[in-house]
Amino acid sequence: MNAQPTRRDALDNRERILTAARAALSEDGSASLSAIARRAGVGIGTLYRRFPTREALVLELYRNDIGGLIDLAPVLVEAHPPLEALRLWFEEVARYARLKYGVSEIIHAATNNGLDDPAYEPFVAGIATLLRAGEDSGDLKPGLDPEDVLLQLSVLWRIDPRTGAARATRILGLILDGLRAP
Length: 182
What we know:
By secondary structure, this protein is mainly α. The chain has helices spanning about 10-25, 35-40, 45-50, 55-80, 80-110, 120-135, 145-155, 165-180. It contains 8 helices and no strands.
């Protein structure tokens, strides 16, 4: 039996649901699934067919967004000077952190606090790509550990996105300043 390809309207609905969920959960981590369905312009049944639980929806957003961050690192290194690439990537991480703020407990539970997260190594490798480019150009200190940088970035998940945008920007500036070569 051949599997039928996913219909275009089903793919569009999935993308609309993910976009609406990303926006709604970034604003309020407790946004209801019915509110997300309304925002996406789909019925609640459509949402539940794609994502049978809140956890399933959050984890799909996580996989989607973290995968985008991983894929973005080498693209930025190719397109921008190393410090600019790192700054732009950090800004994207900060955008992602706004979503993670309200749903981090779901992600941490599903990934055993990150220990069983298949995205962990690729994410660290993305950071390493950015750090290596900055080290090679002489813009960043040599020998920086990408896991140390990840630990520094993890403070972003604790900043309330409704009140902390300026704080996140300041913290990213401090992290970048600390990574720069003397």
